[in-house]
Structures are given as C-alpha cells and as structure tokens.
Write a structure and sequence with these properties.
Its main location: membrane. By secondary structure, the chain is mainly α. It is built from 13 helices and no strands. Helix 10 packs antiparallel against helix 13.
Length: about 280
Amino acid sequence: MNYRAKRKLNLTLVYVILAILACIWVFPIIWIVLTSFRAEGGAFVPYIIPKQFTLDNYAKLLTNPNGTYPFVRWFMNTLIVAIFSCLLSTFITIAMAYALSRLRFKMRKPFLKVALVLNMFPGFMSMIAIYYILKAMNLTESLVALVIVYSSGAALGFYIAKGFFDTIPMTLDESAMIDGANKWQIFTQITLPLSKPIIVYTSLMAFMGPWMDFIFAKVIMGDKVENYTVAIGLYSMMTKTTANSLFMSFTAGCVLIAIPITILFIYMQKFYVEGITAGSVKG
C-alpha cells in the first residue's frame, strides 16, 4: 500500500469516527426538538418521530404567566440575572487580569499561586457558607443574591484573560507612556480595543452560567417559585404526578432556553475561539 492510499484510508477512518460521534452528540438534541412538537402525551413512547405535530406544548408553556409553572417569568428572571452577571463578571475579570498581567506589585506571584490552587476546588464546596452569608444579609430568595454569587466568583477565572493580556507586547504600553498616557488611558484606548476576543469570551461564559446553573440557584431560591430561574423551574415540572402530562412542555422549554444561547454563540464563535486559544498561551 503506497503513501497516498494509506493516507486516504486513515482520513476515511477519521471521518467515519467523527460522523459517528457527531450523530451520537446530535441525536439527543433532535429527540428533544421533535418531542417538543409531539401531540401525543406521555413521557416515554416507543418511537422518536411524532405521529402528529403541534404547537400546543409551546402555547401551554408561554400562556401560563401567573400559574403554577410561570415559564415566561422564569425566563425573564434568568435573562435579567444573566445580563447583570455578564456585565459585572466581565468588568471584574478583565480589570483583574489586566492588573495582574501589566502591573508589578508585592505578593503578586504568591497571589497567583493561591488563586490557581483555589481554582482547583469545585465551587459548590462553598455553597453552604455562601447561603448563610446571604441569609445574614437577608438576600436569600432574591435575584440580587444570584447576581452577587455569579459575579463574585468571576474573579478567580482571570487566568485565561491574563494569558491573553500577556500576549499583547509591553512595548505598546511603554510607547504610550512616553507619549504621556497614563495607565487608565493605556487600558481603555490601547489594550481594550486589542482585547475584543477575550472580552467576548469572558462575556459569553458569564452570560451562559445562569442559564445552566442549578445547584446554587436551588439552594438560594428555596421554595420561592416566582423567582426561579429556568433550570430550577423546568426541573420542578418533572414530578411523579406531572411528568407524563408536562413532559412535552418541559422539552419545549428546553428548546426555548437553548435558542438565545445558540444564536449568541454562533454569532460570537469567531471571537470565542480567538479568545480561548490566545488566552491559553502565555506570551
């Protein structure tokens, strides 16, 4: 077997494996979308493609604003928390990463080491302590508490952003300082315009967090249904008594919450890839 035939065979095997993995990955998504349009009731049926298609599952979900399962309220709660968390988290992360990348001060290296060690521990280890702190501040069962929790944890995720800032040459800062610019002017007029990829990456990660988080939101919100996020709200629909009757509406909710994240991710994908690849390599 010559080199060209061997290379063609290897590529064929690679593409076959990738196609199989892609089918395995896409199948649950297709199943959820099809189920959301299924007219037949029941959580478990012996077929994938619905016998009859309907939009009633979406209508049932969206026309119950003040009922037992106010999906629209949950959606807006999550959107509000995601927007404010995104803004605060991005500001905190970018500012901290820039300071640790560009400034030299006492205890900088020990701080970086401590932050690296803290990042190795899962966030939910601090869940009980955070709950009691919020309870002492009378902030439990509120959206403000979720914004505080998501934003305050953003600072420890500065390493990728710092790696990106490390790739920007220090000579740009030095040239600007010679021309009379101060640190703030260098940051806002030189560094930030060059940092669009990492800003988009940081914002996207911060925006996606509230949509996917369940543990912290459930602990903080307790039984206050009107302040639930979509993750807790959809989970609360799947009880022993309502699983069969609400399963199609549940899948419709899954499709609806995936739409804004998918659109945002597709639109920002170019900057996302640039941000994570540039930030993963220290210059």
